[in-house]
Amino acid sequence: MFLSCGDALYDVFQTDHPTSSQVQLSAHIGGSPLNVALGLARLGNPVEYLTANSRDALGQKLQAFMHAEQIGTQHVVRTDRNTSLAMVSLNQDGHPSYAFYIEGSADVSLTAQDLPDSAPFAAISLGSYSTVVNPIADSLKALVQRAAPDTVIAYDPNVRPSIEPNRQVWWDTFNAIAPHADLIKLSDEDIEFLSPGASIADFARDALALGAAWVIVTQGPNGAIAFGPQGQIEVPGRQVQVVDTVGAGDTFQAAMLDALNRQGALSKSGVAQADMQQVLQWAIAAAAVTCSRQGADLPSFDDVQEQFS
């Protein structure tokens, strides 16, 4: 059983509008860790989600979505706070930028009293703004510290400067979570924000020194690099007609955990022995499928298998 933790919101896109006085919006359920849960479920894995979700109309639909996608809601706490929103703008390459409306919202309101027993989970995945906005940030740090001795921890910082522009806040979070993480997945853009001018290899070396088994760095169309006990493993990207890249990194995270699970390597001792070349290939194939679709429409196992072959 997997547990993914954190953001639960709507990505809101502006569509073509008929007059100068109108704006038409298209909202899609999202949130980086919720996308990870969706990816794991669609790939055929049992997964629970940990968040606080609103009782408003958007929250009700979000709850129904999780049920429909077979994402467990046993650890979803209901609240009267509003649902978070992320206004998404796409550049000419389909790369998104975000403006978030989350202050006082439901998903950031999770407290330490809402945390589940970590024992039933083989792996816990977390990241994004839920790790830097309180009270949920401190709650998730407490969960990680409690679970880390027996549970694989997969951490994706997924830096969002539009929510928290202070680099030191992200560093404080990184230094609190990374020592407990077995897998640290981040993008080259995350590294550029955290350590401007640092090389990927130098950043990964320093992160590994904190205790992770693997540091995996995604590089958009250029593929991904893993640093760990088997040295440096690099896998190129896949050619795909990009619609947008929303959810691509989350897809990578979900598919990475899926591949480790299928290898039987999802344990504290097994992660270091994983065939990381195959893991990266599978995760890149999955992310390529998502990039070929609008929004965070993550692939099924069959979708990835078709791309992978």
Helices, strands, pairings?
Layout: E1 2-5, E2 9-15, E3 24-30, H1 32-42, E4 47-54, H2 57-68, E5 76-79, E6 84-90, E7 96-101, E8 123-127, H3 136-147, E9 152-156, H4 167-177, E10 183-187, H5 188-194, H6 200-209, E11 214-218, E12 224-228, E13 231-235, H7 248-263, H8 276-291, H9 301-308
Parallel strand pairs: 1-4, 1-8, 2-6, 4-5, 8-9, 9-10, 10-11
Antiparallel strand pairs: 2-3, 6-7, 11-12, 12-13
Helix pairs in contact: 1-7, 7-8, 8-9
Question: What brief labels describe this structure?
Answer:
309 residues; alpha/beta; UDP-N-acetylmuramoyl-L-alanine:D-glutamate ligase; 9-stranded mixed β-sheet; 4-stranded mixed β-sheet; 9 helices; 33% helix
